[in-house]
Amino acid sequence: MPLKLQVGTSQKIGQPDYGSLGASCHVELELDASLIQHDLETFHRHVKNAYVACRQAVQDELARGAEVSPPSGNGHPGGNGNGHANGHRNGAHSNGNGNGRDGSGPRKATSSQVRAIHAIANRQGVRLTEELEARFGVSSPEDLSIRQASECIDELKAEPATTGGRR
Amino acid sequence: MISINRESANDVAERLTGRRYLSHSAVSTYQSCPLKYYFRYVASIPEETVSAALVFGGAIHLAAETHHRSLLQGESAPTSDDLFGCYQSAWSDFDGRDVQYARNSGREQLDDLARRMLDAFESSDVAQPEGRIIGIEEELTGSLLPGVPDLLARIDLLVETDDAVVLTDVKTARSRWSSDQVKTSASQLLLYQELVRPLADGKPLRLEFAVLTKTKSPDVVRYVVPSDSHRIERTKQVVQRVWNGIQSEFFYPAPSPLQCPSCPYQAECEAWIG
Fold first, then answer.
1. Smallest CA–CA separation between A101 and chain B, in Å?
2. Could you state, in order of their start, the residue ranges of all structural domains in chain A?
3. Does residue B152 register a pLDDT over 90?
4. Global pTM value
């Protein structure tokens, strides 16, 4: 029986003018449930590794957000009083302040949409990165807006499945 | 030189509970019994028992989630047996735990009920939502009030229609809800809508409970939660007061003949002397 392990971490850093920049990363793993009873050391190693990965992702995201955040931290991508860096990782459920975006521009795809896009693309044998770049000018489903993600899902669903890894 | 190190509300929450946010469930727990909140979220005492109703509700919930995820991913809808398999797999997570059943109830009766409820779900409009699904079990966090930790919301179902974004929370209940029950449960969705609003891209939000009844002939009933600014503000103020209690470490027992018999912390509560 699989053991579901959910770990995550969040961090918020201060920005000028009372703003803040935050990022969160949560992952869900399936482990062998017998680890709990027979191999706690391995279990703890998995937990520790997951936390390390989450913390690293959060740090990277904060660093990336800080790079693009202007000194005023006001109403621009990356940081303001309400803006969180995007904390999506590995399709886990994670968001910050209304889906991880600053107040301007369309909201990014939800984690459910991102997960669905990956699932459909895998099933259909679609090379997702190429498809996204050609159709939406982005390389990752996380960079789509909610509306674009819905369109992408509809289009992927409509495509016939391929067997040889089309595109 | 004097330096001031001021903790943010999220810092305080993390120091007390290990989590940098509040959930609606945590707020509700504090409202029902502050000492139960303490045992669960601050002392992190493992619960020795778990109520069958809780496991059952979670198992039905998982089946509904699986169904909606299949729709979003363009797969054929799961069969009744598939959904019942999801329900059973949720139970298996509690193997080895002390599951407390209500009087005159056991796993077999609950399994029979689950089959009927899942059949009712499959033939309901909740299973075939109009519009595009944009979120299933979607987790959102955000700040609702200054000085209060971020709220974590897990949205069961988010659907975008031509004229609205519909936020649905799936519940199981012994019977259909009264209007009072809808009103008292509304706080959860009123809070959640504040976090969902930025995703709606200017469209109005519609808040709904989808209640699956645990009756002989199960029903799936949708209840629309009306939203008005007074109720939203009132709900936020409740959260503010609850947080004031938590951060002041104001924990005390709130005995209730309805709640106590199924409380997993009865021994700890008895032993508590402040």
1. 9
2. 2-93, 111-158
3. yes
4. 0.73
